[in-house]
Amino acid sequence: MTAFPPQDEPPSKKLDWEQELHDLVRLQLVCKSQTPDKKRAELPFVFKTVTRLLENASCRDEKDRERKDRGRGPGQSTFGLTFPPSRNASILARIFDNEETREAFMSQSFLFERARNETKRFQDPPKTGHQQSAKLHSLYGMPLLIKGGNGRTLRSSRLYPFACSKVYDLRQYTTGNSGWGPFMNDGTFHVDWEKIEAISLVLRENIRGKGFDAFPLFSNLWNTPFGGSWSGSYLPWPPNNDVTTCGGIFEEEEGDDQASGGSADEDEDGESETADENALRLKDPYGVTGTWLRIVCFLDYNDFFYYNFPTDDQLPGNVPRPVLDVGEATRLIMMKLNVTKIVEPGEDDHKDHPVVFFEGLSRSFDGSWDDNADSDIRGSVRVTLEGEVRWTTYSLFDGEERWKSEGIQIGGIQSARGVVGTWFEKDFDPHGPCGPMAYWKISEIGPKDKSGDVEHEILIHDFRHVGVQFNYDEESDPDDDDFEEEVIDDRLPWEVQYDEEHAQEMEEARIRYDALAEEAMANEPNPNEESLYYELHVGGRAHRDQNELDSDE
After folding, report:
1. SS3 readout for 36-90
2. Which residues are CB-contacts of 526 (< 8 A; sequence separation ≥ 6)?
3. How far apart are CA 213 and CA 220, in angstroms?
């Protein structure tokens, strides 16, 4: 077994404030240095200081503490923001606002070196500097502009084929003992941050390409420096449905039910939780119960197979496969999870944190609304010996496990940044498939429980609930007599983009439709307008779907 020093020890809350201040001042001076080589030499110090600042970031501001003290619960997020402001994160965002500083400390992993044509062979075990730089980039959460070998700036989209090459290379899963997750190959389950970095880049490019980042529930996390990348940063969306605080469940005092809007044992829909269910929720330190957004990307299996099993494949194991840019499919999924069991940690788990098991259900946003689009979920969450939060899920169809995923919660327990990792066949099929995925919590609304059985249903209004809240207005009260409900545009992002790009074509089609209708009215007393409607609308949608397929290919 290859020994590899962990990149994080479990954080200590014992702070030497004088030393912390000195380190912060030194960090600012180092990042202002005009000498790139001098900056890069300070990577170990910068890594240590940045991670310490995030580990000790406050998870609630003063107003939230005041609300808690008054018994009115924690502060709530607005406009799709699922994490509160943090002074530590704001300071770091300002420090790394400089492009040269980001390049010096966040683009030193193997992925960037390969893109700059500086190296062509994997390091086993990975270099410590590579891992530190990749983790800084993962915590930062945004793509970088980098300098190519000829001094030209490379955009993040140019990095995408290199990241895909790593994410879809089966050797990254089958070599050694990584459990097919974003871990080292030595069986320690220490996080491989270069894998996390590559996965994040692939997901970010697909989020941008599909137009998801037009929605605050995406952009607030994926377009914000250090957005939610610290423990306890999660705040629920939409407002006024939270029952949690930074340290766990907030227990209201007697007499505060009216101020908080209801009983602590009532969920969003007003239905009481069972005593056992509520007890588990109270004991869960990870905040599992609730609604989560999940994004999954995958290749066409033909592309995946030919990439991993080319004819006369004699590529050495320490040489990466060629860059990959064949297009991916992307699925946006809603999950509702519920805690089912909490047990003591095992030998391979951190002794200070329990293991929590959960169940739930999921539904794709673009599913066909039939039974085959449903998937049940079961899994567990634990803290590794290294101090990282590890999530494992299984997707079940007809009660049988089919797909498995392994991920790490970036930032720590109850971070808003969420879980990033990989999915694969549950029996570790050496022929795949596999790919990247991520999920993050948006609401405290869990699956409804009827007589102890989880109701296997996610309804259309659940998706509307998510979509409508993207444009939530605090001053709009549905209970107000003067409140007028707005007409909701429930088109998906890529439908909006298509309609905008083809507005002129659609207008010309409408004019042709009107002309055909007038001609039909002149020639026939009862024209067959149904056929005209089918030609214009159904045929047009089929044409659009075919264009999307062609673009994916």
Report:
1. HHHHHHCHHHHHHHHHHHHHCCCCCCHHHHHHHHCCCCCCCCCCCCCCCCCHHHH
2. none
3. 8
Domain ranges in the chain are: 502-552
Q: Which amino acid is at 142?
A: M
* 27-55 pLDDT, tens digit each: 999 999 878 888 889 999 999 999 999 99
**How many residues would you count in the chain?**
553
C-alpha distances (whole Å) from 272 to each of 276, 340, 361 are: 12, 17, 20
Neighbours of 424 (CB within 10 A): 21
Contact (Cβ atoms closer than 8 angstroms) between residue 323 and residue 335 = no
As to burial, measured by CB atoms within 10 angstroms (0-12 exposed, 13-18 middle, 19+ buried), residue 196 is buried
Q: Helices then strands (H, E): number in the chain? A: 20, 14
- How confident is the model at residue 117, as a pLDDT? 85
pLDDT over threshold 50, residue 242: no
Which tens digits make up the pLDDT trace of 114-125?
998 887 787 777
- SS3 for 513? helix
Cα distances (Å, whole numbers) of residue 189 to 318, 494, 505, 543 = 21, 38, 54, 47
- pLDDT (tens digit, 9 = 90+) per residue, 392-445? 999 998 889 999 999 999 999 999 999 999 999 999 999 999 999 999 999 888
Residue 254 pLDDT greater than 60, yes or no: no
Residues 553, 18: Cα–Cα separation, whole Å: 57
10 Å CB burial of residue 511 (0-12, 13-18, 19+) is exposed
Who contacts 331 (Cβ-Cβ below 8 Å, separation ≥6)? 295, 296, 297, 298, 364, 365, 366
pLDDT > 90: percent of the chain: 47
User: Does residue 198 surpass a pLDDT of 90?
Assistant: yes
| Beta bridge pairs of residue 393 | 379, 405
